[in-house]
């Protein structure tokens, strides 16, 4: 009887382990993409809020660029702010900002040279203000957050596999 008992255990354990792996992979992929999408939406919200804060400033033709960043920060990781008057003249551009053309209002994605930028733009006080962030940085941030959301799934699937295997083989 031990051979039959052992065979039955393995006939139960192999499909259950296979289902666990498939379910773990599926839930991991779903968790990753949901978290990445959520992070992207959060970054868009951040762009919108920053634009609204900056748009409360009064820009004029005499507006000057912001001072250079601290040495501890990377210019590529910064937001850039641009502002145009009602005639379409650029009246403000932060240090390190690329020559982004006047964008459409709301969200847009533009290419400047070899870089792509996510922009939110709105008009306040007859000035169009746009805040932009490198798309590469946004993707990097969203992916990093999504990977962190995936860690519990990656930890639980092997743990569940060990527990299920132990239960089936012990019975």
Notes on the protein architecture:
- The chain has a five-stranded antiparallel β-sheet with strand order 2-1-5-4-3.
- Helix 1 runs antiparallel to helix 2.
- By secondary structure, it is of the alpha+beta class.
Sequence-ordered SSE layout with sheet pairings:
Layout: H1 2-54, E1 80-84, E2 90-93, E3 106-112, E4 115-124, E5 127-134, H2 135-170
Antiparallel strand pairs: 1-2, 1-5, 3-4, 4-5
Helix pairs in contact: 1-2
Features:
171 residues; alpha+beta; 5-stranded antiparallel β-sheet; 5 strands; 52% helix; 20% strand; rod-shaped
The total of helices stands at: 2
Overall mean pLDDT: 84
- In whole angstroms, the N-to-C terminal distance is 14 Å
Unreliable spans: 61-69
Query: Sheet with the most strands?
Result: 5 strands, antiparallel
Shape: rod-shaped
Our estimate of the beta-strand percent is: 15-25%
Structural class: alpha+beta
Q: Residue share in helices?
A: 40-55%
> In angstroms, what is the radius of gyration?
26 Å
Number of strands: 5
Read across the widest sheet, the strand sequence of neighbours is 2-1-5-4-3
Q: Write down the oligomeric state.
A: single chain
Outline of this structure?
The chain is of the alpha+beta class and 171 residues long.
């Amino acid at each position: 009887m031990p051979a039959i008992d052992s065979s039955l255990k393995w006939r139960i354990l192999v499909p259950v382990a296979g289902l666990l792996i498939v379910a773990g992979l599926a839930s991991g992929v779903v968790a990753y993409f949901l978290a990445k999408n959520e992070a992207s939406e959060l970054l868009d919200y951040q762009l919108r809020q920053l634009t609204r804060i900056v748009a409360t400033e009064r820009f004029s033709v005499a507006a000057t660029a912001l001072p250079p960043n601290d040495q501890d920060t990377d210019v590529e990781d910064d937001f850039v702010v641009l502002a145009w008057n009602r005639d379409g003249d650029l009246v403000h551009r932060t240090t390190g900002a690329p020559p982004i053309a006047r964008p459409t209002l709301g969200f847009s994605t533009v290419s400047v040279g070899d870089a792509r930028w996510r922009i939110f733009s709105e008009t306040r006080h007859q000035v169009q203000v746009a805040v932009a962030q490198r798309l590469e940085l946004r993707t990097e941030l969203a992916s990093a957050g999504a990977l962190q959301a995936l860690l519990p799934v990656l930890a639980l699937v092997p743990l569940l596999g060990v527990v299920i295997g132990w239960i089936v083989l012990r019975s």
